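Dear colleagues,

For the upcoming journal club I promised to circulate an example of a predicted protein-ligand complex. I picked one with iron/sulfur cluster because it came up in last month's discussion. The inputs are reproduced below in full, followed by the predicted structure.
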Amino acid sequence: MTDGKNVLLAAPRGYCAGVDRAVETVEKALEKYGAPIYVRKQIVHNRYVVESLAKRGVIFVEEASEAPEGAHLVFSAHGISPAVRNQAQERKQLTLDATCPLVTKVHKEAQRFERDGYHILLVGHEGHEEVEGTAGEAPDVTHLVDGVDGVDKLPDYLQDEKLIWLSQTTLSVDETVVIVNKLRERFPHLENPPSDDICYATQNRQESVKAIAPKCDLMIVVGSKNSSNSVRLVEVALEAGARDSHLVDFAAEIDESWLDGVETVGVTCGASVPELLVREVLEYLDDRGFNDVEQVTTSTESITFALPRDLRPART
Ligand code: SF4
C-alpha cells in the first residue's frame, strides 16, 4: 500500500444478462444483415456502447417512424409499448426485440392485472423508457408513482377497487420499500406483485456498493447520466456512508480535486458499462498512488439470456 491509498472494487458490477443480450443482438444483426441496422432509442443507456455501435453502422432513432420502411429495427433493452410495435409493423420493418426478459416479465404482469380488473400503481421514474413501455401495456389502468411524493398525487381508490403495485426494474431497493410502505398506509388493500420487479442485477450491484461504501471517502460510479441503475448507485453509496460519490462516463471526467485527502476510493459501475471503462478508472487512480486494489465480492452471477430467435445459431 502507498501512503494508505487504496481502492475497493465492488463486485458484481457492470454488464448484466439483459445488457449483454441487447448489445449482442445488435452485433449479431450487423453480422447477419450488414449495416445499417436501426435501433429505436439507445440500445442500453451507455454513451460508450452507443458511440461504438454507431461507428460500426448502427443508426439510433427515437421512433420507428424515423427508420425507413422495411429496415432492420432493433428495440432496446428497456422495452416498448404495443403502440411502438404496431408502428413498426405498419412500416413493415424487420424487428428484433432486445427487450430484457426481466422487463418483459413486468409487461406480462401489467397485461395480466389489467385483464383481472386491477388498477396498477407503477413505481418508477417519469419519462424513463422502461416505464413508458410498461405503462403502455395497460395505459387506462396504470398510474405512475414517481418517488415518495408521487403517493400523494394518486386519486382516492375505493376499498372495492383492486390495487396492485409493480415497479421499474432499476430502482433503489430501499427507496422502493419506503414508497410501497407509504402506498400501503394510504391504501391498506394494496396487493403485492407475485415476485420482485427490481431485477437481480440492480439488487446485486446495490448490495455490493453498500458493502464497501462505509469505508470509502469517495465512491466513483462509472455510468451514463441517463442510466437509472447507475444513478441509483451514487445515491445508494451516499446513503450507505460514502463521504462523497460521483458518476462519470469516462476516467477523463474525474476531477482531481475529488481525491484531496482521500485514502479509500470505492469503484463500481452500472449494469450497462463495459469493464474496460472501469479498467481506465483503475489506471487513472493507479497513476495517482492508489495502487492497492481489493475486490470485494458480495455475490456471484451466472444468469444468461438467449438471443432473439432470428439471431440464434442454426441447429445442426
Ligand atoms: S438491469 Fe436488470 S432489467 Fe435491466 S437489462 Fe439488466 S437484467 Fe435486465
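Two points we might discuss: The mean pLDDT is 97. The two ends are 54 Å apart (CA to CA).

See you all on Thursday,
B. R.
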